[in-house]
Amino acid sequence: MENNFKEQDPNEDDWGNPPSPNTPENTDKAFKYQIILGIVGLIFISLPAIVIWIVRS
Hints:
Number of helices: 1
Largest sheet: none
Helix content: 55-70%
């Protein structure tokens, strides 16, 4: 059985480069999404404690 899968050659030129230019607009968007991710993360981290507190009372 032949393997028809052709492996892609690694592109060493774009390794480590940012995916988009660091403009003020992109920086503002990134900061906004980091705040949203932080709030969502805090909610999901504290959710088990809140559920246990509600169940025990």
